[in-house]
Amino acid sequence: MATFSRSDDLQGAEFVDADLRGARFVGSDLSGVVMRGVDVQGVEIDGPSLFEGDSFLRVNGVDVIPFVEAELNRRFPGRADRHARDPDGLRAAWSTLERTWAGTLERVAAMPAGTVDVSVGGEWSFAQTLRHLVLATDVWLRRAILEIEQPFHPIGQTDAGAEDNGLDMSIFTTATPSYAEVLEVRAGRVAMVRDFLATVTSDELAATRTDP
Questions:
Q1: Helices 179-199, 87-109: inter-axial angle, 10-degree rounding
Q2: Global pTM value
């Protein structure tokens, strides 16, 4: 199977009558891609940035993003609150998120031993996902907002390109932490966000931060 990495320049490439069945695009920039007369049966797209700014995703001339957004909000009550811009709204949104995660953790705890370390379809395992959320909290809250000089916990899960984005990889452990440790660190980070939101003011929310 051919593999194309970030070093391969495929910008502006044209694929005509190409067979891309089963191809997998991970962390790739497909902005502005145009597909005409294509067979897209069974295609899956997971792109959080679809809901940012003036993004659109047109299928047969119809922008489907508003429909996807509405359906996700229906499936996950409280999801729409992520757009809150005032302290009370953010506190309510975070409270909803914590309740949802509590239910998720309970469900996972009832699963067979080792389930948390299983990777499905090449994605991170559940434990790795929690570790990445630790990293996300460290990047955005501890580094960008609180401006802590060394904000990172060693078990944070990095992704491809982290070193290129300025992260010192020597900070992070190469060993696999126990699930109990992951839960403990993740709970601590959740509490940090909760404590920050408990006292945050509108002025603090409006303050300019350095992009981490």
A1: 160
A2: 0.80
Q: What percent of the chain has pLDDT over 90?
A: 59
Q: What is the dihedral of CA 196, 202, 208, 212, to 10 degrees?
A: 30
Within 8 A by CB and 6+ apart from 91, the residues are 197, 198
pLDDT digits (tens, 9 = 90+) for 58-87: 999 999 999 999 999 999 888 889 889 899
Q: What is the dihedral of CA 129, 135, 136, 141, to 10 degrees?
A: 150
Sign of CA dihedral 202, 206, 209, 211: positive
Q: Which amino acid is at 108?
A: V
Q: What is the per-residue pLDDT for 164?
A: 59
Q: How many residues does the chain have?
A: 212
Angle at 152 between CA 201 and CA 139, to 5 degrees: 45
Q: Is the Cα dihedral 53, 30, 126, 148 positive or negative? A: negative
Tracing tokens 């003036």 back to the chain, one arrives at 54
Task: Give how far Cα 96 sits from Cα of 74, 75, 131, 154, Å.
Answer: 14, 14, 21, 28
Query: Distance (Å, rounded) from C-alpha 66 to C-alpha 212?
Result: 29
Amino acid at 125: S
Of 103, 150, 114, 158, the C-alpha closest to 132 is 158
Helices assigned H by DSSP within the chain: 65-75, 87-109, 126-137, 179-199, 202-206
